[in-house]
Structure formats: structure tokens, C-alpha cells
TrEMBL record:
The keyword Protein transport does not apply. The lineage of its organism: Eukaryota, Viridiplantae, Streptophyta, Embryophyta, Tracheophyta. One of its GO terms (molecular function) is iron ion binding. It is a single-pass membrane protein. Heme binds at C409. GO terms for cellular component: membrane. Its main location: membrane. It comes from Kalanchoe fedtschenkoi (Lavender scallops). Gene3D superfamilies: Cytochrome P450 (1.10.630.10). InterPro entries: Cyt_P450, Cyt_P450_CS, Cyt_P450_E_grp-I, Cyt_P450_sf. CDD domains: CYP86A. GO terms for biological process: lipid metabolic process. This is Cytochrome P450. Belongs to the cytochrome P450 family.
Amino acid sequence: MHEWIADNLRATAGTYQTCICAVPFLARKQGHVTVTCDPKNLEHILRTRFDNYPKGPTWQAVFHDLLGEGIFNSDGSTWLFQRKTAALEFTTKTLRQAMSRWVNTAIKLRFCPILEQSVVTGEAVDLQDLLLRLTFDNICGLAFGKDPHTLAPGLPENAFASAFDRATEASLQRFILPEVMWKLKKWLGLGMEVGLTRSLINIDHYMSSVIHARKEELNNNNPPHDSHDDLLSRFMKKKESYSDKFLSHVALNFILAGRDTSSVALTWFFWLLIQNPRVEDNIVREICAVLLSTRGDDPSAWLDEPLQSGELEPLVYLKAALSESLRLYPSVPQDSKHVISDDVLPDGTFVPAGSSITYSIYSAGRMRSTWGDDCMEFKPERWLSSDGKRFVMQDSYRFVSFNAGPRICLGKDLAYLQMKSVAASVLMRHRLTLVPGHKVEQKMSLTLFMKYGLKVDVHKRDLTAIIPSVKQQTHYSAMDEECVV
């Protein structure tokens, strides 16, 4: 579907309109959809006329049972209050440290041992599933300070994770049906609405127990307040008094926003590296160059611990490769907005009140008019300065993978931190190859999952052959800098 939309947008200079309802009156409102990926239009929708393009009633109705009026599912003053509160927390150093701690623990004690076991046994792994479990454990730890252990040995089923998955899938099914249909099914207790109701009961029970336990800990100062650096505890420590329901929705919104997106981004990233060994080699050499300066020239010492924050920061080529992967395969391939008042987009397209606008993030990264004739190539160099030493972020209305405007992703820097840490840990230890005959295909969902997962064989990486050339390259680079000085 996303390729079909991209083809349509290429043929219509970046914007077209369609109708999904043939009833004359409804055709101009609920059935009328404007589809665009034009950067000027995106800036108009996401920033200039932000107030005219909210999430809207359809989106909110679909997700209300699961997410309530949380930040991911709200508009207006409700959204703004949560946004400002969360923004203050996301800028704190302690939250970044908390993310590093959760990620590094999961990598060292769970993720890497599973991959190493795969090398020993020769059995393939579904990398998409492993990454989904990894990011779920991380975001739960960051959101409410509790580790669900879905990446534990044996990959056990977790009641909360399973209930959350079923609730998300059932909520997405509502998009397919007219609102009156799924509400009728909910009232009659039919189809996936039954599963959604049961899942929501399980989620509510789990979150209630977490919130109750956390309140007791904070009231009794046991363990000390300082040990609670998760978002839930941070909201609880505010002077305002929040209801348990609100706190639950705060945590669930951040789990939905931070779990699937990072895991899907990493899945497509590793698949692209398998197709592009030149890029993989460049990333491995960059990591080796950093570790030579921080951990010495014994490669066995490099693998004792995951990379630390100070070692991840200089990995500009890795960040460029991750950004290039997100350009071609954005975790959220499209989003939609509701139109409050009649408006005219910068390209001259009239959009009527009551209609909707879909902006294709997938298409935005694949337009020649925006990215040039090589737009379909996986080329990390387009994100680097001319000397290749600095990462250069593209305009947020050309690169919309983290959204843009007032609703730009709060966790963008944390997402890069997590993705760089996972990618570096894998690439320093292993080389991945696609299982012969495995089919890589997009799944139709809110997030750009691979329909059949990503089945890979895991091989041990030998760094000894790389180190001499990296040392030589580092030596010449240092000499060049001295000459410049």
C-alpha cells in the first residue's frame, strides 16, 4: 500500500485527493481525504496551522479505551499540559542515564547471550522478535521502572506484554471499520472487541498494581526516591495530584510511542546492512577507531561491556546510517489529521472542514524532488558534512520520521542512543546473513513491521583483520590534523 501511495504522489507532484465514501454529503467531509508528502504542505499542517489539524475525533475514539487522554491520543489543552510536563523530564540528564542503564543491562545480560548461543547452535533467530522484546523491556523500565523480562532466556510469554499486543492490534482493527460498526460490535461483544475488553482488564490490573506499589515506596521512601528515575515516578513526585487512571495512561502512551518504533527501525537497519556490506564495513571501522582510543588495542577488552554514552557520541557514520534507514523505512509510515476549518495548502490544494489529511512519511523520503535522483539508494553519506566528520540533520519537514512541529518526538535523542547502542553491540560481535528463502515484506499496520519477521543466521565477527588498517587510518588522520594546525 505504501508503495502504491508513493507512486500516486510521484505522479501528482506530491499531493492528491480521494474519496472513500460515495454518499454526496459525506464525500465532502468524512469521506474526503487529502494525501500529501510535499515538505511545504507538511510544514503548513504540522507547524504553521497546527491548531487547524488536530488528531481529531476518529483517531481519539479508536484509541480511547487503551490510551485514554494520554499524550499520544489527545489534543488541545490536555495534550499541551502533558507535553510541557514530559518535555521537562526528557531534557534531564538523569533520564538519559536511566535509558543507558536499562539498554546496557538488556544488551549485556540477555540480547548478546542469545545471539552468541545462535552462533554456537547454528540456529537462526527472528531478529525482529528479539528487538521487539528488547525495546519493550527497555521502555517499560523507563516508563514505570519495572522490567517485564520478555527477553529472558527461553523468550517467555509475558501476560502484560501479550495483553498490550492484543489491545493494540484490536484498536488498529477499528480503523478498518466505520465507527458505528465497531461501536456496535463493542456493545454486542463481538469479534476482536471481546479480546480488547479482556486485554484492557489485564492491563488495568497490572498497571494498578505497579502504581499502588510505587506510591507506597515513594510514601515510605523505600527504596530511596533517587532510585526512581522512571517517568511514572517523576509524574508522581509532581505537586499536582494525578488520578491512578491518568498515571496509567501516561505510562501506556509512552510504551506505545517508544516500543515498536525503535525495534522496527533497527530491524530495517540490519536488513539494509545485509544488502550493503560497504556501509556495514564503514560502521564497524568507525566503532573500532573509537574503541582503540577508549579501551586500547586489545579487541577482547572491547566486548566486556556495551559502549558507554561518551563512546556512542562520536559515531556519526552510524547515526547517519540509522537516519538513512529511517528515511527509506520510517517506523510510522503515515499519519493523519482532522481538518477543523476550510483551508488552502501552500501548493494550492483546497481542504474542506471535516475532511482528513494523510501525510505519507514513507513517500516523503522517496521523492526525487526532495532527495535527488539517488533517493532510492541507501546512502548514509547524504547525512554527513563534506569532510565526513560531522552529522548534519536534515530539515524536519523533509525528514518526518520523528514527526515535526510542536508534536515532534520528545524521545528522539533517547531513540538514537538506544539504536546506536544496540547496533554497535551487534556489529562488533557478529555478522548477520539472511536465512535463504526468507521473504522480507511489509506488514499493514500502524508501524512498519516486517510481515514474516527477519530471520537471520548469526556469525562470529573477526576484528583482528580490521584493526591494523583502522590503526593506520587513525594515524594518518591524526597527522592530517597536525598539518592543518
